[in-house]
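Students often ask what a holo structure prediction actually looks like on paper. The answer is less mysterious than it sounds. You provide the chain, you provide the ligand, and the output is a string of discrete structure tokens encoding the 3D arrangement of the protein together with uridine-5'-diphosphate.
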Amino acid sequence: MKLSLVVPCYNEEGNVEAFYAEVTRVFAENGVADYEFVFVNDGSRDQTYRKLKGLFAEHPESAIKVVSFSRNFGKESAIYAGLQKSSGDLVCLIDADLQQRPEVVVEMLRHMAEDEELDCVTAYQAARKENKLISSVKSAFYKIINKISDVEFVNGASDFRLLKRSMVDAILQMTEFHRFSKGLFSYVGFNTKYIPYEVMERESGESKWNVRSLFKYALEGIFAFSTMPLKLATIVGFFCSFCSLLYLLVVLVQKLAFGINVPGYATLVILVLLLGGIQLFALGVLGEYISKMYVQVKNRPIYILKDYLSHDEKDQ
Ligand code: UDP
Ligand code: MG
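The corresponding structure tokens follow.
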């Protein structure tokens, strides 16, 4: 069975050549012969594209495809483009920075071969090598999103996975603009096996993630895979109306039964602040969904192609 390696690359000039060399070495040692590389240059600002073009020219014996975007569209778009251009019966998504070892791909292939019922093998980080705080915030995120969403999210499961063609085709049918791969993989269903793996240190360059982008990514996930925040506005609104009715009742009883006058301005200030805040919050939540719909309705492409190199006859 032919394997396609889909490799998103953003500013990976120091890694792509080492990545190519490592994969070819490890695959040769393990008897993996029928495979292609689909490198996606996601608008890198360094020499990544030149290095990829070099690999393409220097190794006509290897099946290499290079997709290049007109600007940086993000890893999710790069994955989409890579899946589109892949031709293997099996497709593996793998980072270019050698944090995800090719040996693990060989292991994934073994699992896939052993059980024909499997459609996907996903690697998850056995032990996270990161800040304790970030780690616990991530765990909290997974707890929340699993509560409020219908699809299942597995903590620590990465995009590092091996997919069968049927699952790839299903993912490609999801043409939404705001892509949250972890959710899309669960949404399409199929049989997935999770295997632990150890994340290596980055070969060269630095991670594109920071606290801000992680937070943004978490919100993307929630808004893309749950409508609970919309319902939250209804629930909070209902709760507040109920409380204010109760309060009105108490005031009325005090006034009618005991003749006590409740000072009006304190009540007013509290009510205005509380209700104003809740209304703004609800509006904000609505705004999030509307802005996503707005972008989707414009139906802009998930990525814009600038160059495409391939020796594949189908591409000629
Ligand atoms: N990446 C990409 N587009 C981006 C950001 C990242 O294609 O806008 C690629 C990057 O080149 C790498 C992979 O996605 O191959 C994972 O990125 P990174 O190593 O920064 O993430 P981490 O491993 O720290 O989670
Ligand atoms: Mg990385």
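Strands lie at 3-9, 35-41, 63-69, 90-93, 120-125, 157-164, 192-197, 305-309.
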